[in-house]
Design goal:
The protein has one domain (about 1-235). It contains 10 helices and 7 strands. The protein has helices at about 35-45, 70-75, 90-95, 100-110, 115-120, 120-135, 145-155, 165-180, 190-195, 195-215; strands spanning about 10-15, 15-25, 30-35, 50-55, 140-145, 220-230, 230-235. A hairpin with a 2-residue loop joins strand 1 (about 10-15) and strand 2. It starts with 7 loop residues before the first strand and ends with a strand. The mean pLDDT is about 95.
C-alpha cells in the first residue's frame, strides 16, 4: 500500500476540538484528543517523533478564485462530491458573518459560501496561524488530506455508503484493516470525545500521510496550485 514504518499523525476536527491518530505502519495506533490543533500535535510528539502530520482541513486559502484541489476532488468522488466543500477565498473566511462571506466569495468565484464552509472558518484559521507561528524546522510538515478522497484511493472506487451510516462505518473500518490499520478498543479520551466517523477519518488521514512520507502519494492538483502570498494548495492522497 506504499506506507512506511515511520510515525505519522492524522488529525480531524471533532466536536469540542480535534482528534488525532498516530500510526507507524504496524498494529498499534496512538489516539489523541485536545481542544486545539497545536495541543493535539504536541500530545502526539510526547510519545515520539512525527515524520509528518495530515490534517482534514483546508490548508492554503486562495486570495482570489476557486481552489483547483476542491474542484478535482469533487470530480473524483462523483456521487460523494458533497463531502468536499468549496473552500472560500481568504476574505470570505475572515468575514464577520456568513452574509458578508457569501458576498465576498461570490464576487471572487461566482459561488456563495455554504453553512458548513463558513462554520469551519475558525478551524481553518487556527491551523493556518499555527503553521505561520511555528517555524518549519520546529514542527513536522503538515499536509491537507481529505478522508473521502483517501478512501476512494484505498478502495479503488467511490464508497457506496455514507460514512455516518453503520454500513459506511463498517466498510471504512474494513478498508483500513486491509491496509494494516486496525481500530479497536475504547481509544481513551479520543474515543470518548470524537464521533465514530471522526475517528475513522483521522485514521485514513494517517494512512495517506504515511503514503506521503513514503513518496507514494499524489497531490490534487499536481503540482500544488499557487494561491497567493507564496502559499500553495493541494489535497494529498
Amino acid at each position: 500500500m506504499g506506507v512506511t514504518s515511520v510515525r505519522v499523525l492524522g488529525i480531524d476536527a471533532c466536536r469540542g476540538g480535534w482528534v488525532g491518530l498516530a500510526w507507524a505502519g504496524g498494529d498499534r495506533v496512538w489516539p489523541y484528543a485536545a481542544a486545539t490543533f497545536a495541543a493535539t500535535v504536541a500530545a502526539a510528539q510526547l510519545d515520539g517523533s512525527l515524520a509528518a502530520v495530515g490534517a482534514d482541513i483546508p490548508i492554503g486559502l486562495s486570495d482570489n478564485g476557486v481552489r483547483v484541489a476542491d474542484v478535482q476532488a469533487r470530480a473524483l468522488l462523483g456521487p460523494r462530491r458533497s463531502s468536499v466543500f468549496e473552500t472560500p477565498v481568504r476574505s470570505a473566511v475572515e468575514a464577520a458573518d456568513q452574509q458578508s462571506a457569501s458576498s465576498l466569495n461570490q464576487a471572487a468565484t461566482g459561488h456563495k459560501v455554504s453553512v458548513q464552509a463558513f462554520g469551519l472558518r475558525h478551524r481553518i484559521l487556527e491551523v493556518e496561524r499555527w503553521l505561520a507561528a511555528v517555524p518549519s524546522g520546529e514542527r513536522p510538515p503538515v499536509y491537507e488530506v481529505h478522508p473521502e478522497v483517501s478512501f476512494h484511493r484505498l478502495a479503488g472506487e467511490t464508497l457506496a455508503h455514507a460514512k455516518r451510516t453503520w454500513a459506511g462505518a463498517e466498510q471504512r473500518r474494513a478498508l483500513l484493516a486491509s491496509a494494516g490499520l486496525q481500530l479497536f478498543g475504547g481509544l481513551g479520551a479520543a474515543g470518548a470525545l470524537a464521533a465514530v466517523d471522526d475517528v475513522v477519518d483521522a485514521a485514513v488521514v494517517a494512512w495517506s500521510t504515511a503514503r506521503i512520507v513514503s513518496g507514494a502519494a499524489e497531490s490534487l492538483p499536481h503540482p500544488p496550485q499557487p494561491v497567493g502570498g507564496g502559499r500553495t494548495a493541494a489535497i494529498w492522497v
